[in-house]
């Protein structure tokens, strides 16, 4: 923690040395994209996108889960997405999963999460579009004790597409995507290599950007 404190203590002076780049942020924000990804500490969107302050509107959730849009049960995640679309007018939305994802791994393996009931309930939000579906060979391989990283990667990538599909059910998203006002993107980040893959709808595969 001491390293973080020391860095924060001197950040203002170092920022001033860079010509006051941060001053423009006082005028408001106009981010280029909404970036939905996992809370995992190894995933740093600005690190692999090169985004500057004010360019990415980030939403981070365990397992990059997009909860259903329900006005009778509003969530901070739904409010964040709605704000990005309706108020900020972002031009693109990225849902980004990642390798070695503990949340998706727990889903496909059916891990016992009784010691973390809030996590268990949150992951249950994804059950309707869970990577582990009866008869799905890839998911069964990912759930097996001998599963390799490739099997989990396939499950995470399917999970990303499921969350993107759920996002389309939010008010205005599908309509904006259809007429080109919003671009929807499914990404997969490899934490151990830094590689970023994107879903290609025409081939239904993830390949390097």
Overview of the structural elements:
The protein is globular and about 50 Å long. Helices cover 39% and strands 17% of the residues. The protein is built from eight helices and six strands; from the N terminus they run H-E-H-E-H-E-H-H-H-H-H-E-E-E. It has a six-stranded mixed β-sheet with strand order 2-1-3-4-5-6.
Q: What is the structure about, briefly put?
A:
The protein has 209 residues and is an alpha/beta fold. The protein has eight helices and six strands. It has a six-stranded mixed β-sheet.
Biggest sheet: strand arrangement: 2-1-3-4-5-6
What is the element string, with H for helices and E for strands?
HEHEHEHHHHHEEE
Terminal CA distance: 36 Å
Structural class estimated from helices and strands: alpha/beta
Helix amount? 25-40%
What about the largest sheet?
6 strands, mixed
The low-confidence parts are 130-147
Strand elements, count: 6
Strand content: 15-25%
* Radius of gyration (Å): 19 Å
Q: What is the general shape?
A: globular
Which whole number gives the mean pLDDT?
89
Individual helix count: 8
Which terms summarize this structure?
209 residues, 17% strand, 6-stranded mixed β-sheet, 8 helices, alpha/beta
